[in-house]
Amino acid sequence: MRATPYTILFALYLLFTGVQGLFSRTAWWILTTNPTHGLIEIALATIALVWAARGPQRAAYLLLVGLMMVVAGAMRLLPATESFIVGLLNINDAFAVANLVIGGMSIGVGLSARPPRLPTEIRSFRHIDPMKVR
Q1: Is the pLDDT of residue 90 over 70?
Q2: Residue in 82, 79, 110 with CA at minimum distance from that of residue 95
């Protein structure tokens, strides 16, 4: 999947989950959340829809947010950091697994996005005469 449609779908998921987190203790009927978590997801969705979905920076956005989701999911599943992440964001096991899966997908899409192509004269040095360069 190209980065742009995925970025928009990803942002809509974050926005819907974030709004649910503001008004409910659960999102998608099974994922536990809280208002802090909801505000973070709304902010990330807004950044994606306003800035990241329209330019070459979408790959960097997907990599960064995907990494954040994977770290949050892993922290919930590790016994040493479980109480911290539950206290901060109220993530249950289902949300942790969802973060690992969606974050991993975002990293994959971000890595697969092709960088913008440079003009031919910048990519090659064919136009430079080596005898004149001194």
Answers
A1: yes
A2: 82
